[in-house]
Amino acid sequence: MTVTLADVAARARVSPATVSRVLNGNYPVASSTRERVLRAVDELDYVLNGPASSLAAATSDLVGILVNDIADPFFGIMAGAAQSEIGGPGDGSGRGGGEKLAVVCNTGGSPERELTYLTLLQRQRAAAVVLTGGALEDPAHQAAMAVKLARLADAGTRIVFCGRPPLPDTDAVVAALAFDNRGGARRLTEHLIALGHRRIGYVAGPLERTTTRHRLEGHREAMKAAGLYGDEESVTVHGPYDRSSGYDATLELLRREPEVTAVVAANDTVALGACAAVRDRGLRIPQDISVAGFDDLPFSVDAVPALTTVRLPLFEAGARAGRLAMGKETPPPGGMATIAAELMERGSTAAPAR
Amino acid sequence: MTVTLADVAARARVSPATVSRVLNGNYPVASSTRERVLRAVDELDYVLNGPASSLAAATSDLVGILVNDIADPFFGIMAGAAQSEIGGPGDGSGRGGGEKLAVVCNTGGSPERELTYLTLLQRQRAAAVVLTGGALEDPAHQAAMAVKLARLADAGTRIVFCGRPPLPDTDAVVAALAFDNRGGARRLTEHLIALGHRRIGYVAGPLERTTTRHRLEGHREAMKAAGLYGDEESVTVHGPYDRSSGYDATLELLRREPEVTAVVAANDTVALGACAAVRDRGLRIPQDISVAGFDDLPFSVDAVPALTTVRLPLFEAGARAGRLAMGKETPPPGGMATIAAELMERGSTAAPAR
DNA sequence: TACCGCATAGAAAGCGCTTGCTACGGCTGT
DNA sequence: ACAGCCGTAGCAAGCGCTTTCTATGCGGTA
């Protein structure tokens, strides 16, 4: 049936142990022998049996990357960057040895699926796991995650957070890279205030997510600092991180608070929906209403007018997370680093009309 | 160390065989026994050893989804849909049994990486593989792929193509879902011609890709049918499927052929770049130049003006591919189906000025 | 009461690989 | 010239699970 190590050994006239050692390159083998073995491998088109190998060695070459929404470039960019750092040598040029199988798992933002995927990766004895995106703030879920991650770490899995704040009471995590969502949001709102806006609507992300909360907090910090903090509830609307949510929420906002002169969206996708809503109400951007996003996804610069937003170095962060997962880079002190967010002032924000 | 089947068996006072049978549910076990076993599993927080299981059973619960670019929603949407069909019961609500680990692998469009990933999946004895996106037309690579896929199929892996034309000489593939790129492109160009355009620029995708070729062929069919087929080379520019390529190519096009009144882009992302280029040249869309895309990605409706494009049912196709990979759906006759593409007429195209 | 069959549980033989330990030359050092 | 080493290669014992085959006990029928 399929070719086994033993077949290769027979053909190369060595023992299976030797073949294994040639393939793993972790034991001295005379070069003449090595060559003979490699030739046999080639001739027989031998492919290692992963499960058998993982079982015997008690480790696997699987690395999982968990994302909330694979259709969202926010995650796609990070995942792609991480994968390129993990997925073997260079550009897959050859059989370099450290061939890892980097795979991305789509949780759809569901906590159950997140745990399910972690269990599946635990089953596979994954070498590492990268968790991207904000965390859910439900205490029950956080506790379950802490337990699961601790178990994974126990089994030797390296755990890295990317764009997610560190878990309070776990040292299972190798490193946590957190985006400075709060600072970015603060600077964005400060920019709006500097332009002269006083009444600013906020289309927030889903409740109970760290990302949502941090961005909202940054915004309110800026408002407070400017003495503009009032009945914020009436100009804040929550919803998922998607376009239609931004559209609906913005219509609602404009209906509720006609004096609003600027709308800050939870992210760029939501901002796109917000722009559409503003226009459908017959208002101009930025003359009548300023709109701002967050993340600086690739399409944001092409919006008309180009979207003012906060740039997050998604690619760099993903790549770094990948390297940390592979142990190719030493973790930051304290196992945690904050990644700066940069304000991108573009055409969708301007001084209010009056 | 970690909990094994034997530990569970000891605690439940049964044999390991019985525990295995309870977990797999493929053999009659008295309900009292089953209950006892399940309790032990719970109490010990037992997690199956995947490699051991796969080794013994000679199958694994891994399913691979190969994509060209994970940061591109085109692939993200398909992959997400496929994954949701594959990844276990419902929304991960519980331990339903058919828990598969659906993982997406990012090839970055590189043929080597594509093969590398297939080898890695073969190593893991993957249950199924879904290949998305157009194929490279390099004969050497196609041959290598055919061989590799045949081997995978031999080992029991189910192979499904999604948005990729069937391989000529392989019956290793369970099913191939191909998009009607040619027909969609033809109808799009017909629409432009009907509006009165005569000189139409085409910003094509990368060479040697089936998707690129089919879309270009559809476009030229329409041009020929209208008697407009001339020196097409001078109004066609190739480049990768990204925004900056669209921008550069369009500038080049407008420089080379000032009489062009419409630009058709290889996909929506490229179209966004094209729009930016048109505007930077001081021209208006659609009054001076019409622009059209392909795929109808979510952001396309939010472009200003909204992008005329060709809608591909990415989600539905991905979901169907997922079901086919799981054997939940019977393959179409001949193992291949063509998926219709629908023209979406929106604001970015209009009759030319004169 | 004796026999047969069914339902259920256990024993044990691997699945294909890794790796600690052992074995065996040929070289070096004295 | 002999002991001791180093460089290589093989032996064999698992890794933790699945699954075939066998054993046991029970109820029902003749």
TrEMBL record, chains A, B:
GO terms for molecular function: DNA binding. It comes from the Bacteria. Residues 3-57 form the HTH lacI-type domain. SMART domains: HTH_LACI. It holds the Pfam family LacI. Keywords: DNA-binding, Transcription, Transcription regulation. The keyword Transcription applies. The keyword Nuclease does not apply. This is LacI family DNA-binding transcriptional regulator. It comes from Streptomyces atroolivaceus.
